[in-house]
Amino acid sequence: MSSLGIQLRASRDRLGTHQTTFVRETRAAAAELATATRDTFRAALGESQEAATAFLTRTRAAGLDLTQSLRDEASQVRSALAGQAPRPALPELPEPAMGTLVARVDRLAIDLQKKALGSLHDGLGRLSERVGGELDRLETTPEPAPVKKAKKPKAKKKGKKAPKAPWEGYDAMTAREIVAELGDASGSVRDAVAAYEKKGKKRKTVLEAVALRRAS
After folding, report:
1. How many whole angstroms from its chain centre is CA 202?
2. pLDDT tens digit sequence for 81-134
3. Domain extent for 114
4. Could you give the number of structural domains in the chain?
5. What pTM, to 2 d.p., does this model score?
6. Contacts of 22-28 spanning 24+ positions with Cβ under 8 A
């Protein structure tokens, strides 16, 4: 194979390695982004849940206070009307009228309690549905696909071991210098030169010189 072919193959291998690295790093970065986004959303939802719990607790406490206040006010009104507590001078009402008025006050207190508790119940129900929907949607969100590790390129099989140079410094010599050395070289050295050139540079001048020495 020519030196240009070797360079082109090496360049192709390097580009393939860089491309594989780019794909691997891109997938890893995308997975990290998806994980960070999911964790951020879960953290925000957790804070929303805590805020919703605090809202429910405070609203329930306020509703209970309102209910108790309504009961206390109704009790005071009933006590005042029934003569169990000091009250400003009012015209005396007949007993049937007094009972009717007390019943109306009780009814009004009960209606106010029902209305307040009903509004509170509806609001809490809607809030609970919204929180439950967000939790369901979060649970059904698919996990990002795991990043597949890029396969390492298989190592090229080593070819046959290159033949050894006929003598030390051979590779640094020019074809003319090698031909000059062949004049006094033995047959085995000439054979070694021919074999080495056929596997290496394939210099025509050297190969023809070996053939001429063999024929002479």
Report:
1. 57
2. 666 545 455 455 566 666 786 677 678 768 877 886 787 778 778 877 886 777
3. 3-140
4. 2
5. 0.28
6. 23/150, 24/147, 24/149, 24/150, 27/147, 27/148, 28/147
